[in-house]
Amino acid sequence: MLPAHYVCTGCGEKFLFEFHDADYYLGSGEIGDQVADEDLLAVPVRPAWCKDCGRVCPVEDIAPLRTFEAAYAAVRSGLSIDYPLSSEHWDPADLKRVTEAYVRWRMGRRRVARALCCGGSNFQFMDVSTPLFKHAECDFGVVEPACVFIGPYNWSPGVSAPVNARLYTTEGELIGLRTWLRTDRRSWSVEKLSYPPAISE
Question: Lower CB density within 10 Å: C or N end of the chain?
Answer without folding.
Answer: C
